[in-house]
Every structure is written in C-alpha cells, then in structure tokens.
Automatic annotation (TrEMBL):
<feature type="transmembrane region" description="Helical">
    <location>
        <begin position="71"/>
        <end position="90"/>
    </location>
</feature>
<feature type="transmembrane region" description="Helical">
    <location>
        <begin position="121"/>
        <end position="142"/>
    </location>
</feature>
<feature type="transmembrane region" description="Helical">
    <location>
        <begin position="154"/>
        <end position="173"/>
    </location>
</feature>
<feature type="transmembrane region" description="Helical">
    <location>
        <begin position="97"/>
        <end position="115"/>
    </location>
</feature>
<keyword id="KW-0812">Transmembrane</keyword>
<keyword id="KW-0472">Membrane</keyword>
<protein>
    <submittedName>
        <fullName>Uncharacterized protein</fullName>
    </submittedName>
</protein>
<keyword id="KW-1133">Transmembrane helix</keyword>
Length: 197
C-alpha cells in the first residue's frame, strides 16, 4: 500500500470503520487527513510573512551543488575575525578590548539567526499590528461616518417626499374645495334666476 493512504476494514459490507494509521519509516503514525495535526500545514511565513524563510534558503544551499564553497559569513567569522583579533593583540591594543571586539563579532554573526532575527521578527510583527490597528480603526470610522451620511441623506429625502406629498394633497383638497364652492355659487345663482322668472 502506498505511503499516505489509509486502510479501512469492512468496506465490502458497506460499513467503513475508522481509518487506521500507517507506520512510516520513522516509526510514527502518519494520517492521511491533516485534521490530526493541522499546525503541520503552517510554515514560518504564515506568522512572519514579511521576511523570507532564511532557514529554508540555508537548507537549499546545503543541498545544492555549490554547498562546498564558503559563504561570506563563513569567511568573516572563520578568517577575518581571528585575523583581526591577532592583529589587534599584536599591535599592543588592550587584550580586554580585543576580546570584547572578538566576542562582539562572533555574537553579531552567530547570534543573528538565534537571537537577533527572532527578536527583530517579533518587533516587526508588533509594529505591523500597531500600524494595522489604526488603519482598521480609520476604515471602521470611515464606514460608520458614511453610514451616518447615507442615513441622514435618506431621512432628508424621506422628509422631502413627505412634505411634497403633503403639499400636493393640500393643493388638491384646496382646489376641490374651491371648485365645490364655485359650483355651489353657480347653483345658487341659477336658483335665484329661476325664482325671478
């Protein structure tokens, strides 16, 4: 059976049982579904997506054909730093100062991947969230203000339509009242003329 598949029993009778884990070469059970270990699907860039994964780049360099060629950091830490230390000591500079400088150089290059880079990534993510929170607050206030403006505009148009409808009904009623009064006057005049005859 291929790696990554799951065995199930009782498929013939239509009653599938729970999937059984496969034992890989490492001796650990491996499940086909990522539900058991969902964090395995998350890489480092999921949390720090602003920086490339330097560890993956280093692994690729180690497995590449040019892995035997020394890098700039290797030259600086294994050649330049010791030569600088010997040069400073031989020129009667304080050994304590040279030792501090030597430790500082090694700490700068070797401590970058273990201390400085994670600290810098944490600080960068905090600053990124500090930057994003006001932006989201601005967009939220912008949305609220526009909703208020739309509501006020809708109420204004509603009031305009209500007043227009009210004035229209009032004009129609006044016109009908004038017509009825005019018709009543005409009928009264016709009755008076009939009596005079």
């Amino acid at each position: 059976m291929a790696d990554g598949q799951c065995r199930s029993e009782g498929l013939g009778d239509g009653k599938a049982k729970h999937a059984q884990p496969l034992i890989t070469n490492q001796g650990r059970p491996k499940f086909a579904s990522p539900i058991f270990r969902p964090w395995k699907n998350l890489d480092h860039n999921f949390f720090c997506n602003k920086f490339p994964d330097l560890s993956a780049i280093k692994r690729e360099k180690l497995h590449s054909s040019s892995a035997m060629s020394p890098s700039i950091i290797d030259i600086l830490t294994h050649v330049v730093a010791p030569v600088l230390f010997v040069y400073l000591v031989s020129h009667k500079i304080s050994r304590q100062f040279a030792l501090y400088l030597f430790i500082g150089v090694f700490g700068l290059f070797y401590g970058y991947s273990t201390i400085l880079r994670p600290t810098f990534l944490i600080m960068w993510n905090l600053l990124w969230w500090v930057y994003r929170v006001p932006v989201w607050a601005f967009y939220g206030l912008h949305w609220i203000c526009w909703q208020l403006i739309r509501g006020i505009r809708a109420l204004a148009w509603f009031g305009f339509y209500v007043h227009f409808f009210g004035y229209g009904v009032k004009f129609i009623l006044e016109s009908v009242d004038k017509i009825l009064i005019w018709m009543g006057d005409v009928l009264d005049e016709s009755k008076e003329q009939g009596r005079k005859r």
